[in-house]
Design brief:
12 helices; 2 domains; alpha/beta; 8-stranded mixed beta sheet; 265 residues; elongated; Rossmann fold; ProC C-terminal domain-like fold; single chain
Length: 265
C-alpha cells in the first residue's frame, strides 16, 4: 500500500517497528526516519540501510507516518508535522494515552489516524498490540497496519475506549512480568541459591511455563490445577499468594496503569 514510510522517533520501540516493517516486506529504500540524536541516527541508518532526514522532510515525502515519540513530546511533534504533512497521509501513533482526536487536533487537518498500543517484546517478534481506527481509514490502510503489526507479534483491533485497558494489560504488562521474575530470583537467593543459579532456574521456569501455556491448549486455570497437588508444595505457595491478595494487587496495579494512561490523553 504505502509508497514511503516515515518513522518519527527511533528509540527502542522505534527500532523494533523499523525492523518489523522490513520483516513485513517494506523495502529499506522506502523508509526514512527522524531522530534528534545524531549518534543514534548514524547507528540505525547503517544497521537497516534506511535514510535519516529532518522531520519536515520525512513529513513531506511520506504516505504513512509512524509516531513513536513520548506522550509529553507529542504536541511539539504534531506542530512540526502539521507544516508539511499531506491531508491524505496515514498517521499511526504509538504514544500511550494520546487519543485519535487529540492527534487530529494537533495536526489541524483530517488525516486518517490509527492508534496503536504496542509492547517491548515486539523487539523479538513476540509483541502484543491493540489498535484502533480513526475516521477515514480505508480497508487498504487497515490491511497494511494489520500485516505490519503481525510482524511484531500478535495484534487485535479494539474500540478506542478500550485503549487504556490494552495499555494496562499488554502495554505495561512486560514490566509486571519482569518485576515478578526479580522477586522470584530474590526469593531463591534468600533460600540459599546463588544469584546465577537462581536467575537461570527462574528464567527457564518462566519461559517453559509460557511455552506450555501457548502450546498445550489448556487454560491458565487448568495448568495451575494440574501442577497443584493437594497439600503439596505448590498448594502452600499458592495459599500464601491468596492470603496476600495477589489478585487484588494485580488488579489494582492494572487500574493504576489505566488511570495514568487516561491522564496522558
Amino acid at each position: 500500500m504505502a509508497n514511503h514510510i516515515g518513522v518519527i522517533g527511533a528509540g527502542v520501540m522505534g527500532e523494533a517497528l523499523i525492523a518489523a516493517l522490513i520483516r513485513s516486506g517494506v523495502k529499506p529504500a522506502d523508509i526514512s526516519f527522524a531522530e534528534k540524536r545524531s549518534e543514534r541516527a548514524i547507528e540505525l541508518a547503517s544497521r537497516y540501510s534506511i535514510v535519516h532526514k529532518e522531520l519536515t522532510a520525512v513529513a513531506a515525502e511520506s504516505t504513512v507516518i509512524l509516531l513513536v515519540v513520548k506522550p509529553q513530546d507529542m504536541a511539539t511533534t504534531l506542530a512540526d508535522l502539521a507544516t508539511g504533512i499531506s491531508a491524505e497521509t496515514l498517521v499511526i501513533s504509538f504514544a500511550a494515552g494520546k487519543t485519535i482526536a487529540s492527534i487530529a487536533s494537533g495536526l489541524g487537518q483530517q488525516n486518517p489516524i490509527i492508534r496503536v498500543m504496542p509492547n517491548t517484546p515486539a523487539l523479538v517478534g513476540k509483541g502484543a498490540s491493540g489498535y484502533s481506527l480513526g475516521a477515514g481509514v480505508t480497508a487498504e490502510q487497515k490491511k497494511f497496519v494489520s500485516e505490519f503489526l503481525a510482524a511484531t507479534g500478535k495484534a487485535i483491533e479494539v474500540p478506542e475506549l478500550l485503549q487504556d485497558s490494552v495499555t494496562a494489560t499488554s502495554g505495561s504488562g512486560p514490566a509486571y512480568f519482569f518485576a515478578f521474575v526479580e522477586a522470584m530470583v530474590d526469593g531463591a537467593v534468600a533460600l540459599g541459591l546463588s544469584k546465577e543459579d537462581a536467575t537461570l532456574l527462574t528464567i527457564q521456569t518462566i519461559v517453559g511455563a509460557a511455552e506450555l501455556l501457548e502450546t498445550s491448549g489448556d487454560s491458565p486455570t487448568t495448568l495451575r490445577e494440574k501442577v497443584t497437588s493437594p497439600n503439596g508444595t505448590t498448594a502452600a505457595a499458592l495459599a500464601s499468594f491468596s492470603a496476600s491478595g495477589l489478585h487484588s494487587i494485580v488488579a489494582d496495579a492494572m487500574a493504576a496503569a489505566a488511570h495514568r494512561s487516561q491522564e496522558l490523553a
